[in-house]
Design goal:
Length: 666
């Protein structure tokens, strides 16, 4: 194996490659030098490196024994680094070229792209983006090298004061460090930016990009600060990827559940109940069908359905630990408002002897049900399920139709089990979740294991047991998974189940959280086979997450064309002329008697108008079109949503076949 040979008295370090192979180099070797020593082709494809799990620039010196990995553009990490470079080097420089008086603030990456917050003298509009994009493409074509320098705080402040960049000065002056501020330049152009890095080694690695929109953003998110202009963009490895993403956005806009919800008369939202849903009859039909389906699945899986209060004393939330963690997201009300004869009602928080909170989650209440009566080890596992209505005080700006609400119903359940039952219960849940997702049309599911966060309850030994328990369960279930450091719940690690919809977007819905902490906090216990008290393990689990959000996901994934068993109106019997109204009504009554959700359209309108209204707008999956001939022959002309063809069959045969099709999958 090739090694970099150095003088015999130089200090040497050991570099461990991803395959476990090791190489020795002189201390101070750079990532690029290591890549070149492995293969020239690898060096040419490298955009950054990882040293002991930390992303670093190719030019960074490595001074100690380290695990080492090359990052290439074809990886997700490489793509994010490219997006960061587009924002901090290409967009920022283009803006400074075109608007010399602009002041740069920050430019991080976000999902599928990036943004940069900038102060402009004159307002910037979407119409200006084309001009900026043109300048960005000119900069990209230069293939300029990107050079990093490490600077003292004084030198970094001086550099940005010289360039009249007050936001950069504020960032540097407010930093805890006194040295090693990373400034990135493009050759000798004079442009620099402050950045955590890493960046591409040069601009030739930049693929295809597009600026998307502008918005307002307060500096540091504080409304008392200067309002800046936020420029959003997206960047991809090549034009093909960019085009695919833009096509997905166009399709997503067509499928927006808020637009389809209004079009299909399912639900609406209004300011007087911000963050809550007004369900219309058709939308609530979907809601009820989905809830009934899940209830059947849970009943057969051995869950016991319960119902717990929505208003609960804050003392329970304090005991569970949620008060300190979620207090700002809770809706809190006094148990009783004290009053005086002289001054009227007293409304100061300090006057309230007892506070009640609308529950943001169901788990502490489920422990209270478990705690009623003595439980034996033979009673476990106990699986409590609840379609629990919860409230969370989400910020106005975060609300988004059904996807982010303040009032929600969770398909929530908690499994109380012995430690030796964790494996069996976790595997059973994973199996149940996959069956439900398949029934609902989602067959592509990714699993992620979210590990202990920095702020958490319980000691490390408890977390070790919990995390190992979930790993073993996933292995037993045969599920591949990705680990997410620092993203677990405060009381335990969790599995996240991310499903992929019809246009390739992913949604995190199902969860399984393993908790040793809450049973201890809320004094849950059972009598073991040794006659002593033991703490149960608590598995927090949900499949849909919330009914509201999952319905929004389904409406968008199906583009409103829901499966027959979920469709609010499964069939419309539409007449061609008024002389067959009685026949249409007769068919409708027969179908309703068989449990079908059917409507008769006997309005004095042209049949093409009726078809367009029920198909294109309301997304009714099946229409029975009847005219004089159909009435005489006791037939119907069947028209399916999305098809221009009609099929004439006997009415009796059509109704029986439709009833079979409309059966729920379970």
């Amino acid at each position: 194996m090739a090694e970099v040979s150095k003088a015999s008295d130089a200090k040497m370090i050991t570099i461990t490659l991803p395959d476990g192979a090791t190489r020795t180099y002189e201390t101070g070797v750079t990532g690029m030098e290591i890549a070149e020593s492995i293969a020239k082709s690898l060096a040419k494809a490298s955009v950054a490196v990882k040293v002991n799990g930390e992303q670093r620039d190719l030019s960074d010196a490595i001074t100690e024994d380290s695990a080492f990995e090359i990052i290439k553009l074809d990886s997700e990490e490489g793509l994010e680094i490219m997006r960061h470079t587009v924002a901090a080097q290409v967009l920022a420089r283009a803006v400074k070229n075109l608007y010399p008086d602009a002041k740069l603030a920050i430019g991080p990456t976000i999902k599928n792209g990036f943004y940069y917050d900038i102060e402009f003298k004159e307002p910037l509009s979407t119409d200006d983006l084309e001009k900026i994009e043109k300048e960005m493409r000119r900069i990209k074509e230069s293939n300029a090298p990107i050079v990093k320098s490490l600077n003292s705080k004084a030198d970094a402040v001086a550099a940005f004061k010289e360039r009249s960049e007050p936001y950069k000065v504020e960032i540097v002056e407010g930093a805890d460090q006194d040295d090693n501020f990373q400034l990135y330049a493009q050759g000798d152009t004079g442009f620099i930016d402050l950045c955590r890095g890493p960046h591409l080694p040069n601009l030739k690695f930049i693929g295809a990009f597009k600026l998307m929109k502008v918005a307002g953003a307060y500096w540091r998110g504080d409304q008392n600060n200067q309002m800046l202009t936020r420029i959003y963009g997206t960047a991809w490895r090549d034009d093909k990827e960019l085009k695919a993403y833009l096509t997905q956005l166009e399709e997503a806009e067509k499928r927006d559940h808020r637009k389809l919800g209004a079009q299909m008369d399912l639900y609406h939202f209004q300011e007087e109940a911000m963050g809550s849903v007004f369900w219309h009859p058709k939308g609530f039909t979907i809601y009820n069908q989905l809830e009934s389906y899940i209830r059947r699945r849970l009943n057969d899986a051995g869950y016991l359905e319960i119902k717990t209060p929505q208003l609960i004393d804050n003392k329970l939330w304090e005991k569970s630990g949620h008060w300190g963690k979620f207090r700002e997201n809770m809706f809190v009300v006094p148990d009783e408002i004290p009053s005086t004869e002289e001054d009227g009602p007293v409304v100061s928080d300090k006057a309230f002897e007892k506070l009640m909170a609308l529950k943001p989650m169901n788990c502490p209440a489920h422990v209270q049900v478990f705690n009623q009566g003595v439980k034996s080890y033979r009673d476990l596992p106990i699986r409590f399920a609840e379609f629990g209505c919860c409230h969370r005080n989400e910020a106005h700006g975060a609300l988004h139709g059904l996807m982010r609400v303040r009032q929600m119903t969770q398909d929530d359940a908690h499994i109380f089990c012995r430690e030796d039952q964790i494996m069996e219960e976790s595997v059973a849940f994973c199996d149940l979740l996959q069956k439900v997702y398949a029934d609902l049309g989602f067959n592509e599911v990714e699993v992620k294991l979210a590990l202990r966060p920095d702020v958490r309850a319980g000691d490390d030994a408890v977390w070790d047991r919990a995390e190992d328990g979930l790993r073993q369960a996933l292995d037993k279930a045969g599920l591949a998974f990705e680990e997410l450091p620092n993203e677990g719940a405060f009381y335990g690690p969790k599995l996240e189940f991310h499903l992929t919809d019809a246009i390739g977007r992913t949604w995190q819905c199902g969860t399984l959280q393993l908790d040793f902490v809450l049973p201890e906090r809320l004094d849950a216990s059972y009598i073991g086979d040794d006659g002593n008290k033991h703490r149960p393990v608590m598995l927090h689990r949900a499949i849909l997450g919330t009914l509201e959000r999952f319905i929004g996901i389904m409406v968008e994934s199906y583009g409103g064309k829901l499966p027959l068993w979920l469709a609010p109106t499964q069939c419309v019997v539409a007449t061609i002329s008024g002389e067959v109204d009685d026949y249409a009504l007769e068919l409708t009554e027969k179908m309703r008697a068989m449990g079908l959700r059917v409507e008769a359209d006997i309005r004095n309108e042209k049949i093409n108008y009726k078809v367009r209204e029920h198909s294109a707008d309301a997304k009714v999956p099946v229409m029975f079109v009847v005219g004089k001939r159909e009435a005489e022959e006791q037939t119907v002309a069947i028209r399916r949503l999305g098809s221009q063809q009609t099929n004439v069959v006997s009415a009796e045969e059509a109704i029986k076949a439709l009833a079979k099709e409309c059966e729920a999958p379970y």
